[in-house]
User: What shape does this take?
Amino acid sequence: MRYGLSFLLCILLLPLVAQHDSLLNAYLASIRDNPAELTAFFQQMPKGGDLHHHYSGSIYAESYLQAAIDSNFWVNMVTLEVSTTPAPKTSDWERFSTLEKQGLLDLYREKILRSWSVKDYPFQADLPPDQHFFATFGRFSEAKSDFGPGSLSSFAAGLLELKHRAVLENVQYIETMFTGVRCPEAVLPNRYNGILENLQQQKKSDALQDTLAILYNKIDVSSNACAAAYAGLLESLHDSLQIDDDHFTLRYQTFAVRTVPPVQVFTRLVACFMAAEASPLIVGVNIVAPENDPVSMRDYWLHMEMFRFLHHLFPNVKYAMHAGELTLGMVPPEELSWHISEAVFRAGARRIGHGVDLAYETNPYALLDSMRQRGVAIEINLSSNEFILGVKDGRHPISLYRRFDVPMVISTDDAGVLRSNLTEQYVLLATRYPEFSYTEIRELVFNSVHYSFVEDNALKASLLARLEAQFGAFEERVLR
Assistant: This one.
């Protein structure tokens, strides 16, 4: 039997590779109890991609606030709301310029930063953690809209901020949940909401799929043109900012909010799938908003059916799913037993975001086996799960996912609101879960490219090759 030279070289090099990995594993073990050493280590380490990433929640509140100050917004000194116009007949509102003249700007800056993020929580907090977290998005929404002129162009400053921060942190790729597709919604009779909800209550899947087909055919064809226009505007913005280069690549997911009536969710999802099909930059679709919201809980099965329906129409469009971002005490215990399974088996999600209530699933081991076999990756968000759900350490199912070899990626969720970054997620991983060796952590980083939704094979190969080279340089520095 003949062996090629490259094969023989690989055999000869195996002991050296094993020794190399052993040294790196030993080094990580030696610093595992030192947060400063870990931070320095992971700050330098190439981190590949951040796949569970919300654009609006990843911009730090300082940027939104500075935009509001520069535009001289009004601020309510009691509620800390900001607005381009004050509420009528009230003396609680003042311009930022007035606060500055009165020497009060720094005081209100700190108050607003705490209101718009988890900074210093629970200092001045009037809500429990999960409600405070989700409330921040509404609080900075007006300032976000003023973060630069125009419509999609208003996102320019934020996109450049994300790129700059990623490059400094050795993050090579971000797949951000950017915006929903802003299309005029088709005017459909309200009775369809009742029909959909009735079919959901009876769990009549076939009849529901037929009804969704009727609704789809009633949606104005302008939705397709609108989605294509949105994709074109996004491509123009992305290219004009020169976001992609030899150091960094950005791709987008679009999404629908799941706390509105069913017909609205469906029409918005249709526009999302159309936009994703129209542009290579829009690599996926998602569904967002608190999973424990009463509407989200009531319509969860229905939303899974919508994704199932749209997958048949748009088989090339990939989608991830917020599923299992729940814990005991947040909802009745029986509601913890089925969300991840439905996202995997009914909706056909390619990745699961959070998946924290895994252990409460009706048959978690079968679910884990299926996720491994199907290659459904789990997006692990440690800081987010700790703050919003109070789940960390051994209560987090990350060790279960690891034991069943479910592909995992480490991600940030909303780094701006959570006052965190991807480096900190790896520090938490190494500190709390010592079973993860350096070799395994490096595999998680490569997973963030392998399980990205990038369709361009040449681009994915380039990202992997770049990551391989960066790891080589990083490991040489560590072992020097």
The chain has a mean pLDDT of 92. The chain has two domains: 49-57+150-479, 63-145. Residues 5-31 form the longest helix (27 residues).
